[in-house]
Amino acid sequence: MLKAHGARWKGLHYHGHWRRHPDPLALEDVVMTASRGASVSARLGAGRPVFAVFSGSRSARVELREHGSRRVVVLHRRGRGTGPAVIALPASQEPGSVTMRVLGGEVELDGVGDAPLR
Prior knowledge:
It is built from no helices and eleven strands. The chain has a single domain (3-115), classed as Galactose-binding domain-like (Jelly Rolls, Sandwich), CATH 2.60.120. It is mainly β. The strands form two sheets. Strands 1, 3, 4, 6, 9 and 11 form a six-stranded antiparallel sheet that branches. It has strands at 3-6, 13-15, 18-22, 30-35, 39-44, 48-55, 59-66, 69-76, 85-88, 96-104, 106-115.
């Protein structure tokens, strides 16, 4: 079972320019929007770290990092009725810090979470 936290969770640390917008489809009825250069980090438990995001522009690129690993993801704009894209890093046996950085376009963060190991 995924342990999810919304965009207002106190464990999220925002860097750069982020804006809060109401969104009835979001986990906590709010999304945080940012463009190139902004990042958000959190300390999550062991498992597979995931970010739930909407692409706020035609397409967006984000970078996920944890314990030195790196993954670049390209998001294409999706219809709002389909829900957010869930992007993840490989599972980790240990808790640690994860960071999502916006490389291009605009991203709307709905929340973060960790899927436990089986």
